[in-house]
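For the sake of transparency, this paper describes our internal protein records without simplification. The remainder of this section carries one protein's record, kept here as part of the documentation:
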Amino acid sequence: MERINGAGSIDAGRYTIKTRKNRFTLVVILVSATLTVMSGSTIAPVLNMIRDGLGVGASSAGIIITTHSLFLAVSSPFVGIILDRIGTRKPFLFGLVLYGLGGSSGLYITSFWGLLASRAVIGIATAFIFTSITVMILNLYEGGERDQVMGWRASSNSMGGVVWPMVGGALGGISWHAPFGIYLLSIPLALATLFVIPETKKQAGGQAGGSSVLDIFRTRPVLFAIYGLVFLGSILLYAIIVYLPQQLEIIGISRPFHISLFISIMSLAGGITSLMFKKIKARLSYKSMILIILFLWTAGFTTISQTLSFVIIGAAVILVGISQGVIMPLSSVWVGELVPVSFRGRIAAYLATFGLLGQFMSPIIFAPVVEHAGLPSVFLAAAGLAVVVFLAFLLKMKR
């Protein structure tokens, strides 16, 4: 098993990894992993305040949260090419700096279109951060150790979903602008990167496992199923983030901090599940995990659509959180097992593309449902999507 040790170097496939003070390398990676979920969930608790402050509708407010997802989706393939050519350290550093500058601009922006532009910048920055972290872990670890670290990464991401919405909700008591200051956390992480993140540079030689990305997709069609699962998971996740605060407002829960608690317990459930991913993967096949994920989505969203009890809603979002806690490490590790090292940047980048495209599309997909059938129907429609995919997957397995 490949490990980073001392102040030397290791050979990971076709990459030479130079290490410095690597004792804190994993810490910086895991803390940085929380930034990807921070992109949207930090300002989710003040969604209603942003809506009222800018004088926009419910779905327009949702697009403010998810605009970064579109730009992340579009830019991720280009980020993957950069990673495969020059390594992960410099793109990672660039992403952290851009993230802090773009995200914190919401502290003083007061227009709808200005805020959309800042969200576009943070989307590009998140593409660099998310994909760099995925490739770093795939290159630095193997086997059970990789499963464990990828689970830690997903758990850190989920824990960010616990902490940052609560902090955002607390700061929302000051102003809807205040939560945007949280994005400045990436600046000290960028400084730490200069000292503790190893560089990966591709060695000279041919590309193993295929001559192009098209060859990879042609010989490994299961990649499309993985991307599809990530895409659906993101659509459903943002159905919670965008529409649950507005559903809670209907039943009398309107304070930003109280709303943040529901998002946080979903993320907490996901984080705890991700911590156990190594054990889950050792006992269950990928197919079994997918079936469980689809069942939990169906149960969770159906429950939310049929109740006005905040306790039952809380239990339902925990089910959704558990499913989300499996998707990230499952998809990342599965991709790492399927493709050669020289293609990992590009193939892993499409995880971000499909995941964040799903986030952007979520309020667009569900907007007609809200308009014609009301907020509760959004969650019933989400459950319906999960059921359709569940049945299609069962049919495919039988064939």
User: Anything to note?
Assistant: The first helix runs from residue 25 to 41.
